[in-house]
Design goal:
about 0% strand; mainly alpha
């Protein structure tokens, strides 16, 4: 028995997991984005903009080259012609695995966009607790612009998710940031 040693106090504040808090808003946000993808596909077809047509054309040509066991540089002039070619490679990878179906790209992008919901919940929890976290999760799940742009197949939704995830990391305590960066 330790005489003179105080027992370890349990924390009265329990930290709520952002995933547990945002499971329902995440499911609703993902379902809404998938419904918008299907709705736009039925009413309008594959492409809404010139951007997605370019991603489709270059992604498919890269996937065809990969199927022929040729691995050209995506930044070369005959393909993307730019140094920022990650999204072209992403589209090409989807086409390489699933075939030339733009709707599959849109569905994957919609689900990646829905990951902004738990990220928003984690930011809310870090700033002011679980009440703000649940409100931020529902806002990210139901915000019309986020739903639409997350369902177009463009890179806007995943970029928003990435930015929110970086904000979550920035709001973590310094010890956790050191572990993440190590």
């Amino acid at each position: 028995m330790n005489v003179g040693v105080l027992p370890k106090r349990e924390s009265t504040v329990t930290r709520v997991s952002a995933w547990r808090l945002a499971v329902t808003p995440f499911a609703v946000g993902a379902a809404l984005r998938v419904l918008v993808v299907i709705f736009v596909q039925v009413l309008h077809g594959n492409f809404l903009f010139l951007d997605d047509q370019g991603y489709d054309r270059i992604g498919w040509s890269l996937a065809q080259a990969w199927h022929a066991n040729s691995f050209p540089s995506p930044g070369s002039v005959e393909y993307a012609g730019t140094l920022s070619y990650f999204y072209y490679v992403f589209v090409a990878a989807v086409y390489y695995v699933f075939g030339h179906h733009w709707i599959v790209v849109k569905l994957i992008i919609a689900l990646l966009s829905a990951l902004s919901v738990p990220a928003a919940a984690a930011i809310g929890i870090s700033l002011n607790g679980s009440r703000l976290g649940i409100r931020a999760a529902w806002l990210a799940a139901l915000y019309p612009s986020a739903i639409f742009w997350g369902a177009t197949g463009l890179k806007d939704g995943p970029c928003a998710t990435l930015l929110l995830t970086m904000a979550v990391i920035a709001l973590r305590p310094p010890a956790i940031k050191r572990m993440i960066c190590a």
